[in-house]
């Protein structure tokens, strides 16, 4: 009996066949890596991949972002030990500009998501968003302007979903006094408060009621909605991220300058 | 007990090496001072020497003691091809193939958004200038097939294509002597996607 309960305890810390995405890796000691994983049932998890920087490590080629993998790890501390990573599903091929969107999503997850906080539906959404990014790249590869627009909309949806999943309310249907948003009114949207009547606050971003309602209906076809939702999400994310800017955004700005 | 300041400073300096923490640095410092003082002196000298003598080649951006490195100065190389690689070690591997005789450009890194490594850090402005010298007719992108390497290749190709330079990317798929039974499914899917008409 005692042996049985002991086994139970050991297996508590052992995770196998867990669908994961690699968010980022960084060097650890001489030949190892710390891998930041986003897993279906355990949320963001950090694990050491021992020897993963050796030339013939089996793990070496597997540590690719944007591919759903199945991982096994163990450990009771915050930093786990990664045992294996294998292909879980087919290859998701993300190319070109969409890759940068993927990096952006990873950076948001790394910065906003606390470790070991399960977010199963966010995981599903992340997975679906990557598939959307891969397919958008295929379908409109020649119309680059249209493509950028679609990528941007995909990111807006992800940003909103991320904030909502993390428990930051982003009320889109009612204003701060619980009055329904009206289509033809303008509002100032302030973090922690929501939409405010013009003149009541100087903080936040100004936007029209129609933008908020369109976002609530997941309808981003209108170009004003696209612009204003971008401003709104940028403002809200900046509020929750603190003063450290996002690397991905800076990189894109630098690339524009070349 | 506190270490003497000179020792403390040495330990602190050794920690700038990747993967060296306070413990390893302490061990290295003790070893150098106690067991191998000659080696330590040599290390100090060569470090200072290397820092002074080595710069970047103005053409390929690799480390070089002269403004233009011997490889770039050689008249036996094909001047019209430019192969873009991430690190000097990649250059050595490319040379070992004996199947490429063009010029190189070493980025000294890759675009890595999550580590804050951007176009400035990998000398993209220098590459753009180099590729527009009028002699180069093809730029071959041989960055790694990792997500960062792919992103780097994408943005370089966009930047060069708008300037009217022909860009190609090295192929990927099954390795030499590769057996389908033993290859990982990611590589195999890429091989299928990149199949060639015979």
Account of the 3D structure:
The complex is a heterodimer of chains A (258) and B (198). The radius of gyration of chain A is 21 Å and the shape is elongated. Mean pLDDT of chain A is 86; it is low at 1-10. The longest helix of chain A is centred in the middle third of the chain and has 22 residues, at 144-165. In chain A, strands 1-2-3-5-4 form a 5-stranded mixed beta barrel. Chain A has a 3-stranded antiparallel beta sheet with strand order 7-6-8. Chain A has 258 residues and is of the alpha+beta class. Chain A has 7 helices and 8 strands. The longest helix of chain B has 17 residues, at 37-53. Chain B is of the alpha/beta class and 198 residues long. In chain B, α1 (5-14) packs across α2. Chain B has helices at residues 5-14, 22-34, 37-53, 70-73, 88-96, 124-131, 147-161, 185-193; strands at 55-56, 63-64, 81-85, 103-106, 138-141, 166-169. Helices cover 43% and strands 11% of the residues of chain B. The chains are: A alpha+beta (258), B alpha/beta (198). The interface between A and B is medium-sized, with 35 and 29 residues.
């Amino acid at each position: 009996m005692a042996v049985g309960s002991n086994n139970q305890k050991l297996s508590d810390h052992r995770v196998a066949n867990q669908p994961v995405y690699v968010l980022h890796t960084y060097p650890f000691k001489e030949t190892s890596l710390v891998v930041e994983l986003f897993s279906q049932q355990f949320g963001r998890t950090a694990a050491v991949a021992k020897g993963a920087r050796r030339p013939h490590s089996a793990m070496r080629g597997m540590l690719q972002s944007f591919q759903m993998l199945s991982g096994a790890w163990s450990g009771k501390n915050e930093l786990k030990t990664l045992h294996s990573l294998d292909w879980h599903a087919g290859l998701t091929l993300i190319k070109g500009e969409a890759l940068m969107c993927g990096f952006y999503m990873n950076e948001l997850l790394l910065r906003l998501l606390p470790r070991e906080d399960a977010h199963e539906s966010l995981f599903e959404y992340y997975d679906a968003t990557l598939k959307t990014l891969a397919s958008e790249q295929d379908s409109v590869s020649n119309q680059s302007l249209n493509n950028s627009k679609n990528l941007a909309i995909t990111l807006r949806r992800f940003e909103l979903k991320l904030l909502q999943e993390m428990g930051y309310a982003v009320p889109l249907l009612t204003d701060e006094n619980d009055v329904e948003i009206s289509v033809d009114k303008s509002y100032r949207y302030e973090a922690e408060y929501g939409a405010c009547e013009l003149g009541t606050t100087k903080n936040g971003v100004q936007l029209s009621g129609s933008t908020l309602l369109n976002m609530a209906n997941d309808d981003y076809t209108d170009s004003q909605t696209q612009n204003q939702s971008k401003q709104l999400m940028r403002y809200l994310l900046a509020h929750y991220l603190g003063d450290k800017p996002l690397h991905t955004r800076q990189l894109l700005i630098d690339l524009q300058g070349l | 007990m506190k270490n003497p300041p000179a020792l403390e400073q040495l330990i602190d300096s050794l920690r700038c090496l990747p993967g060296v923490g306070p413990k390893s640095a302490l061990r290295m410092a003790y070893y150098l001072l106690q067991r191998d003082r000659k080696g330590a002196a040599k290390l100090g000298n060569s470090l200072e020497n290397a820092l002074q003598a080595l710069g970047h080649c103005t053409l390929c951006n690799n480390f070089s003691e002269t403004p233009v490195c011997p490889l770039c100065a050689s008249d036996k190389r094909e001047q019209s091809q430019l192969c873009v690689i991430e690190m000097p070690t990649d250059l050595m591997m490319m040379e070992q193939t004996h199947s490429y005789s063009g010029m190189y450009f070493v980025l000294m890194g890759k675009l890595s958004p999550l580590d804050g490594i951007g176009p400035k850090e990998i000398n993209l402005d220098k590459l753009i200038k180099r590729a527009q010298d009028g002699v180069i007719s093809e730029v071959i992108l041989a960055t790694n097939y990792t997500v960062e390497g792919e992103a780097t290749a994408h943005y370089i190709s966009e930047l060069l294509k708008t300037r009217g330079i022909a860009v190609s990317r090295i192929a990927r798929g099954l390795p030499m002597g590769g057996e389908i039974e033993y290859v990982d499914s990611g590589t195999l899917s890429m091989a299928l996607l990149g199949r060639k008409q015979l």
